[in-house]
Amino acid sequence: MSANKKTDKTIVYFVVGGAILGAIAGYIVNKVGVKNIINVLKAKKIISENVADTISEFTTKDIDEDFEEEEKE
Questions:
Q1: Residues 16, 35: Cα–Cα separation, whole Å
Q2: pTM score, whole prediction
Q3: Which of 10, 14, 29, 42 is surrounded by the fewest CB atoms within 10 Å?
Q4: Which residue has the higher pLDDT, 58 or 66?
Q5: Sign of torsion over alpha carbons 41, 42, 45, 50
Q6: Which of 54, 61, 62, 22 is nearest to 38 (CA)?
Q7: What secondary structure does DSSP assign to the chain, as a single string?
């Protein structure tokens, strides 16, 4: 590769760092639970109740319910 086409090391560091942070965040969400995180965010008034209710609606909905609704239409 020529010197002009080499990837800057900072880009690689950002990508690897983002992947590591994403893995850590995913692990924490998996251990703590989405409902508990939403309840804390709602209690501390970081997000509004409408947004929290919308997120809760999507996280509690089963995949089977989606298919049943589509079949009824």
A1: 29
A2: 0.53
A3: 10
A4: 58
A5: positive
A6: 54
A7: --GGGPPPHHHHHHHHHHHHHHHHHHHHHHHH-HHHHHHHHHHTTSS-HHHHHHHHHHHH--HHHHHHHHHH-
